[in-house]
Amino acid sequence: MAFVAVAVGWTLAPEGGDGDSSAVVEASAIDPSDLRRASPGTTSTGGPDASPSPVVSLSPSPVPATATTQAPPPPTTAAPPPPAPRTALGAAGSDRPAGGGGGRVPGGMSGVYANSMATVRSWEALRGSPVNVVLTFADRGSWETITHPWVGGSPEKFSTFPGTWVISQPFYPTGQGSLAACASGAYNSHWAEFGRWLVSKGRPATIVRLAWEFNGNWFEWSVRGNPSAYASCFRQVVSAVRSTDPQARFDWAMNAHSTSPWEAYPGDEYVDIIGIDTYDQWPASTNPAEFDKQCGKPVGLCSAIRFARDHGKQFSVPEWGLVGRSDTEAGRAGQAGGDNPVYIQKMYETLRANADVLAYETYFNDSRAGNVHSSLVSPNENPNSAGVYASLW
């Protein structure tokens, strides 16, 4: 039976990175019943860790460093020449950022994490405006489910969705690969097949969110002190997909407030969009000043936007949302914002202020037990915030 890809949020304490105890969290998993069960473990440094498994994997978050609003340093990982002849990008008068696969996406696309059109319809009803992008997760269980994802399998699974697909993809199936092998090009034939699949589906300009949240310690593709291997693997995958689908667009998506991601940057020729997942926790943005403070941290949303601008890229926020004060670790630690309209308002203001370089944003709407409890509809766990969201979007 084919698994349905599911993204889930998971509230874990900081694992070290960005300045103070600020830590964000979330996760993704594959689960046929649309549920996730997992338990945080402990890292070698004593902090919580979410280890991937064949069925699920978690995404915790941040690691503080120093509270600063300085822009992130330039990446030190140099990218090799592009793998194949490509149209010159980033030239004067061009609307394509240097290295872009399919060029810039329509500015400011807005949507939601979804496994079916039912979620899309509920989200559109909540806010009274159309959804033109959906965040999805491929099943990471095998090469077959990675190279031929469930997305687009029927009208209810987005085959006729008029907007853009975002597919979150690992480097290799869970427990069936390594960064070293990927970096050597061992999996390129699989990724070339994925490119062919995108073209066959009539979706060549799909956004691929490749090996996301790599600066945390909960996925197999975590940089874990080896950013060069991650960057090399990323370049291999991008090159292989582009060999059969030159229009595919790649989102390099970090986790807010986790360890520094900048040395793992694959290079402008291999990245179309700078992404960041961020949630209202570790610390909660209970007032505008607190939001601005965490946003400007070295691995905060505002710093990611600056990095995108510096590199001539668009940015994305593939996962963002509230975090409940009960049934979450951040809530138990007093670090979750709960039903927090301030956070919704400030996210809107930040996205709007940077609309000229915004590729897309997708809210992570989820109410599952032990998850982030960010849900604004079906069910509405955060009525005050839902009202503000509906009025703004």
- The CATH topology annotation reads as TIM Barrel
- The helical percent reads 10-25%
Spatial order of the strands forming the largest sheet: 6-7-8-9-10-11-12-13
CATH architecture: Alpha-Beta Barrel
Detailed description of the structure:
The protein has 393 residues and is of the alpha/beta class. It has a single domain, classed as Glycosidases (TIM Barrel, Alpha-Beta Barrel), CATH 3.20.20.80. The chain is built from ten helices and 13 strands. The chain has helices at 117-127, 143-147, 179-183, 188-200, 227-244, 288-295, 301-310, 329-332, 341-353, 383-392, and strands spanning 5-8, 27-30, 41-42, 48-49, 56-57, 109-113, 133-137, 164-169, 207-210, 249-255, 273-279, 314-321, 358-363. An eight-stranded parallel beta barrel has the order 6-7-8-9-10-11-12-13. Strands 1-2-5 form a three-stranded antiparallel beta sheet, with no helix packed on it. Helix 5 links the parallel strand 9 and strand 10 (249-255). The longest helix is centred in the middle third of the chain and has 18 residues, at 227-244. Mean pLDDT is 80; it is low at 1-14 and 20-99. It holds the Pfam family Glyco_hydro_26. One of its GO terms (molecular function) is mannan endo-1,4-beta-mannosidase activity. Belongs to the glycosyl hydrolase 26 family. Residues 12-105 are annotated as: Disordered. Residues 71-85 have a biased composition (Pro residues).
